[in-house]
Structure formats: structure tokens, C-alpha cells
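If it is no trouble, can you show me the amino acids of a protein and the C-alpha cells describing how it folds?
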Amino acid sequence: MKLFAEMYVAFILLGWLAQALLFGVLAYKLADKKAYFRQYFWIGFFLGVIGLLYVGFLPMGDTAAYEKARLLDQDIQQQDEEEDALFVSQDAGEQIELDRQVKDATEPVKRRTTKKA
């Protein structure tokens, strides 16, 4: 009987989490269409249907400012990706140089043989 009660509580918590995620995503998508930012996910997550209704009744946001902020965010992400690629290529170049130096240092020194006349 105790196992049944524990499973019941687990299913109740999983159900609540699933509905909270669902309403959070719906509120986020609706706020995004109305040119609002990401914090409305949490309103939908914690308030459920009430939060979704709240976001639904919000007036349309300032789309120009929202688009400007979205483009700025995309530019920042693109710059971060370019910097990451640059660091990776620099690291790869340094690794190739180190590999070449190690190879040069570990190759046996070839002795020249001279012919005596």
C-alpha cells in the first residue's frame, strides 16, 4: 500500500510539472508573438491558465524595439560563435606546431658519413 501511495505522489508531481511546462511554453510563444521578452515563460509556468490569460490580454508590444533587441541578440550569438571558431582554429594551429616540434625533437639525428679519399 505504501508503494502505491509513493507512486501516486510521483505521478501527481510529474503531471503538475508537465502542465506547468506546457503552460510556460504556451505563454512564452504567445508573448513572443506579441513582441514581449522571455520572462513570460515563468508566468505561464507558475500561474498556469491564469498566466496564459494574463499574457493573452497584454497589449501588443513595441515591435521595433523588440526586433532591434532580437537582432542584437543574434549578432552577439554570431560573434560568440565566430570567436569560439577562432579559438578552436588557433588551438589547432598551436597543436600542429607543437606536434611538428615534438616530431623534430624525437627524430634520430642522422649522421653524415663522409667518404675518405
In short: The two ends are 103 Å apart (CA to CA). The mean pLDDT is 80. Helices lie at 2-33, 40-47, 49-56, 63-106.
